[in-house]
Amino acid sequence: MVEKWTLLVSFICIVNFCMTSARPPHIILIVADDLGWNDVGWRNPQMYTPNLDKLAINGVILNSSYVQPVCSLTRNCLMSGYYPYHTGLQHAVIKANAPGFLPSNITTLPQKLKEVGYVTHMVGKWHLGYCNWKYTPTYRGFDSFMGFYTADEDYYDHTHGDGYDFRFNTEVYHPPKGEYSANIFAERTIDILNAVNPKNESLFLYLPFQSVHAPLEVPEKFEKMYSHIHDKDRRIYCGKVSALDEAVGNITTVLRERGYMDNLLLVFTTDNGGPVIKGANNLPLRGAKTTLWEGGTKGSAFVYSDTLLKKTKYLNTEMMHAVDWFPTLLHVAGVTADSSIDGLDMWPTLSENTPSPRKEFVYNIDEILKNAAIRVGNYKLIEGSPGHFNGWYPLPKEDSPQSKAHDNSEEYDATISPEPEYQLFDILNDPTEHFDISKKYPEVLNQMKQRLSEYKKSLVPANYPPPDPKSNPKYYNGTWSPGWC
């Protein structure tokens, strides 16, 4: 009897040891840049994105995943778990020649993950400040970085304005001449995947692609996929989406070959809505990149895993925001996020489709533009002007029959009439924001205004400094380089 009891205790100890010694899952966070709501194959069959579609359809498509109106703001959310109006980054993007940055006293997502043994790598676009080395990726928790610091650049020669902007860790780096950036980033990612031991190490890979931001550049083979589209901007833009899709496909092939998929969570999201003046499309949503409309802030997103999600192959309509990725990914890694952040742990919602803990969020509060928007339950309040793209922008006429229903171009002109001080929408019943109900429901309007006032009490003044001539690339051998603030 004693012998049997000893064996039982030994077995329990072995099981407990195995459970506690199991490595935390690999986490890959892919961010597309300027991807429109209507620019993915799982939503628009005119788009050729088979690799993304396969992941999305076999994972969980997130149909109410919100981001910020522009690039730097969303990246702030992902890396910090805070709304931009709590870090001073609420007004526009960080300019290459201005000393803006994510404050250095904020602990970033990779820094938190390194505390529990993750290897952390970044490939792609940073756009969270670089005027001092301490604001750059390898000083913010990443073991390695390949990519660029600024907002946008040429896909082939990696120039932004008057300067060159491409790095491998802290060194200026020149990829093979003429190679498209989506391919460069995929190749670097594959090198990382081959260097890490998926059985003995836990990997966090942050992969914010340059694609599909302006400029309108893509290898000819991808543009030819859309030869039926007569509008050149739209044709090239769609080609950029397919180039991104191919890069993701090449990466996921290696993930399977190397055994990562046995213990991996893959997250895909855009950073903001699509820029309609650069070929993107957000139908049926209203607005575009830079605006507080749904077309600027409701992001195409999904999660995928072979093993970690308890429920898959469905459309998740629960509310979440970009700040929620920070505590959610920490939960997956076995880490508890600080209670002071704005993000909420969404893992039960994503993995089991339980009700979202998020019942409200802040789209943004910008005291310089004097605009703001919040969501509480089904209701959305907009204060001030939502932005410069206030319509519903159809696909080019020759490419989509739906555009015939939108033949009056004045409908998309943001200068037709001034916006009222406040607008109220029922997003559940009017997701395309056609009907301002502020006059119909004055009591709801007042409640929403009061809630916005509460949010404003914690606003940190925007850190949006003017250009600094010391940033000029001519002082750094023609490159955008840290060291001037």
Automatic annotation (TrEMBL):
One of its GO terms (molecular function) is metal ion binding. Residues 1-22 form the signal peptide. Gene3D superfamilies: 3.30.1120.10, Alkaline Phosphatase, subunit A. Its cofactor is Ca(2+). InterPro entries: Alkaline_phosphatase_core_sf, ARSB, Sulfatase_CS, Sulfatase_N. It comes from the Eukaryota. Keywords: Calcium, Glycoprotein, Hydrolase, Metal-binding, Signal. Pfam families: Sulfatase (PF00884), Sulfatase_C (PF14707). Residues 25-335 form the Sulfatase N-terminal domain. The keyword Hydrolase applies. Belongs to the sulfatase family. This is Sulfatase N-terminal domain-containing protein. It comes from Sinanodonta woodiana.
